[in-house]
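Risk register update: the risk of archive-format incompatibility is retired. Evidence:
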Amino acid sequence: MFTVVIAEKNHIDAIREYDIFLKPLIEKSDVHFCEWRPEEDTLTFAVPKLREVVGNREEWRAIVVCDERGLREKNPFDRSKPVLPKYPELKIPDALRQNAQPEKIQPDTVQTETAQGDTQASTVSGTQEGAAVEEKDRETGRVDSKTRAKLLDEAEEKYKADVEQYYEDLKRVKFEAFEKSSKEPLTRLATFLCHEEVMHGRNTDANEDLAFREYVAESIRKEELWQEILNSDADRDIVPPTEMICIAKRTLEEEKYDIETSWTTHVENQYSDFVDWNLYFGRMRYLVFDILPKSHMKYVQEYLKFLYTLLILAQNDPPSGALRANRVYSISCEDNREAMDRLLTVYDTKLAVTQDLLEAKLRELEGTPREGISNHDMDVAFRTRVPVSFPEMGNVNTEALYSKPKELGMATDCPKDEFSVWAATLRASKKALSELLRQERKSLRLATEETKLLNTPDYDRARFLDDAQLEEVEQYTNQQEKEMVAVETRDFADMSEYLKKMEERDKIIRKAIDTRMTRTTTIVVGIAAILIYLLGFVPLLFNNLSTDKTKITTFVLFTAVTVIMLVIAIVRLIVSRKQMRKLFAEFNECMRGIYDDINLTEDRFCEYLSHACTAMKGFSVVEYRKQYDAPETLKMRVFRKHIEDIKRSREELRAVFGSVFSDTCVVDGDKIRPYEYNFERPVDFVYTIPFEEDKVTRLEYMQTGNYIQIPIDFLKKIEVRREELYE
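Archived output:
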């Protein structure tokens, strides 16, 4: 039957990891594996590929490999483990026990004896015979019949109350167990795959038996919890499996079993009812596989037995009656040590023969002389820095970056308006700076592309480098990489810092221009000053002149003062123009600094690209030399790799099956051929175990006399026995 193994990822990965040991069982099987994620609550996310694998199949079965939370439990499937209350017993009063007839009073005869006592008391009451009996009872110390009947009635009432309380306690304990179980991953998975209603009637009669009422209440609560699980995933369009086999690993040590319980006689109805409080279903079957702890040195070997058992179980249906519902069975795998020893010895010998073949080829290559390259040629070709420069782009008008201080006049509007001149100068300077940076970015891009072309090494000569020369090239390359990282570069696209400096100079110059006078203002102010001077002093001078000599002296003095005033005015205008020219010159110095900074950045980029180009070229040489060496050297390296892989495979074989190897098993190594792989290819080969093709062996399966056919001969028997799990 089509079988789906639902297991956690680590088990599926282990099947892939130990593929070489499981290959015969995997190749000839139609078993499919689905990853189970127990932490997920819905079927869609817990087993995401199940719908895709099952498809529209009407008949299929599921084998679920349980998680390891019950690893150390005697019953790994019992996750709730409720402490059930004890069914009460009818307690006979001590007075009746002490005075009872030799025959023992049974609970089911209480009503009869009570009725008989009442009848007897009413019959002999008032008669001499009755009086005689009572007199005799008093003489012997026995309880009279009336008192006896009363005590029995009280005991029965107490018994009935205890029974009612028992069922109340049982319901409470089981409901708590149901609630806990509904959160368990196995219960949720089983509900999605195996759910079917266990009852249809919901109303119960108050006069019905307490046990049946309890059964109905439990069934209703179970169905409510199951529906909560089912409603969490509305997309359940999948045909339920005809059978769900749950298998769990167990590391419980034998001395921890309850020895007294195992020697006690049990009846079938005392078997553990774990299926009830764990919310399991009738189509589920339960298997445990006893395995060593993971810390044990033979754990991997035992785990492989578990995987063998799992795969054989998935490929073969259990025989009829081998697995009963609601019972736990232990399943074990017995191997054929002689067949296993022979198979592993042949495998190890085949690996050893292949290793000897590769080592012989390696020794032959090591004795072959190889060509080389001189140290001088090596330095020129692989240890010389590759220069990278920015290509010349079209001429950028760098003169536009600067202002022209010499064109400034005495006044702010002579010969041109200084505000207009400055605005045009600043605008032209920004435009030239932007164009310069654009050209630099373009040059950088072209230089980067050129770097890709310059870093191509001479591969024909690289293959002849010996190991010492290769080490020098690698050391030089690492140094170039460090120097490349140490170079500080700036982004050509960032004008903000440059514009900030230009704006600062712009504010200073505009403020200075604003304080200068125009040509008209200068003339008017000068004439006004002279007129004021003349009007204030000339009349006074003429009135006080007495002789011609005095007039001449006065006129000369007047003329000299006037000239001095004019000279002072002209000097002041010259000083003002000089200050303005100085501000323009400072702006030019600022732009010259920006231009030098751009050139410095260009030089740093050239240095950076030069180091990068040299480093990339060197790394290419090193990588090529390691991967694509001279043909002989490459073959030697590949052979060494395969030899190490084979050694590792042999070590892993002994780590897993070291206890199986024996000195008594001897095989003829001359008849065993090495693996026929193309060992000149640097790939990872899988060294499969040399199983015999088309081999068929009978294996005793689950029941004595029941055999199946498997493609391996190192397993003898898969045995199943029922676990003794009694309450």
